[in-house]
Hints:
Layout: H1 14-40, H2 49-53, H3 57-60, H4 62-85, H5 87-107, H6 111-122, H7 127-138, H8 141-172, H9 177-196, H10 210-233, H11 238-260, H12 268-271, H13 274-302, H14 315-343, H15 345-365, H16 370-396, H17 404-432, E1 434-437, E2 440-443, H18 445-467, H19 481-491, H20 498-507
Antiparallel strand pairs: 1-2
Helix pairs in contact: 1-7, 1-8, 1-9, 4-5, 4-6, 4-10, 4-17, 5-6, 5-7, 5-9, 7-8, 7-17, 8-14, 8-16, 8-20, 10-11, 10-17, 13-14, 13-16, 13-17, 13-18, 14-15, 14-16, 14-20, 15-16, 15-18, 16-17, 16-20, 17-18, 19-20
Amino acid sequence: MSEAIDSTVPQASGGNAANHQSAAVAVLALGGIVVALMQTLIIPIIPMLPEYVGASAADTAWAITATLLAAAVATPVVGRLGDMYGKRRMLLVSIALLIVGSLIAAFATSLIPLVVGRALQGLASGVIPLGMSLLRDIMPPQKLAGSVAVISASLGVGGALGMPLAAIIAEYANWHMLFWVSAGLGVLSFIATVAFVPESHLRASGSFDYLGAGALSAALVTLLLAISKGADWGWGSATTIVLFAAAAVFAVAWVLWELRARRPLVDVRVAAGKQVLMTNGASVVFGFAMFAQSLVLPQIIELPEATGYGLGGSILVAGLAMAPGGLLMMAMAPVSSRITMTVGPKFTMMAGAVVVALGYVLGAVWMHSIWQVVVIAMVISAGIGLAYAAMPALIMGAVPPEETGAANSFNTLMRSLGTSFASAIAGVVLASVTMDLGGAPVPSEDAFTIVMLAAAGASVVAFVIAALMPKYRPAQGDEQTVEVEAVEGAAGIAGEADDAEGLAASRA
Length: 508
């Protein structure tokens, strides 16, 4: 187990301290929004990429795959480095990589530099978990719940703003402008982080686990390659099967090594604790549920009315229809915070799961106009905002303070795996359950209904996992738990209150 060599974080007092803390939260949220924008800005131009860079559609798909793989590798590694060498420092490194990657892509005229730039952008994906972990070190307990909720919601805001912004740029400007915007926002985030975000004085001791990082990276790369390219290569092809087998071997090797390592990349014993393990499991399922709406709703808006269910909208209309949901996700931050501080993050996660499930069930039977799609997206996003804000609380309430960077990063990785599974499974359904439209196959209405109901089922599974979580017992010596226990005692909801402790304790 790592040890903190300095557990004292200087705190200012009075209104000046509150202003500094609010500024830090705003800047960290900006970083999350910039990273989410980076991930979504390229989506509207994917169909045009072969023409832009002179490559086949199969090859240009690497502009997405490279970002996915880089993010999977970087997120747990950067989290651990943040615990060891400073979370703010690694935040700045991550943002700098995003800026460099954006500039390379902005100048790209062929596929290879575009893929390189997108991979460097993907290395910045650790910004959000690093920001949440940093808040635990610099914020007072009473403000931690709301602050973490804001950072968590920034992912939805960035995604919501990214699609319409990208659609406008793609329609009225050169596609390179997408990456100039990303670079400019990255510079703004970097400067603001230097100016307003303090460094945590918590440090994990020991050396970096290079072998563990290599094994985990190999497991993730082979798994995600198989998931993301399996449909193209064939799910029964030798390449796909070998990649899945290699992923399993590397994963087992990684776990065995981490159990033996003196300073592991991820403390597997802590990760195997019931609260952390179940929260990560719920994160995978919620990742699936979150991404399903991004696969279904824009397509329904953009498909022609001749299908009988398509709404015949443009890319811009689809982006604008999804935007209110993302903004609502941010608006749910104070609601999530209040629920968590009253009855605990476990109850917040369960409530979010119920709302998401209801949204998808509604979507399965009620998507006949754009305003209905907007309502459905808002319901789903509200539930995701509740649940996602609770996850870091549960994680940080069950791990030592000096390991929150690695633990939150690993949790973020689990969400990303869920989105990857959603993309693969939904892709198979939408490609298999089709109808003929002018001689070309397009997904049928039944295909979208199946995906929506699968996402509703995933939300129900997440609810069950959250309901089965044990009462959290704080680690001895964690000073923040005293205040959380007081909140718990007042709440008294059959064991759910334990997560309030997890939230406030871990966030400070």
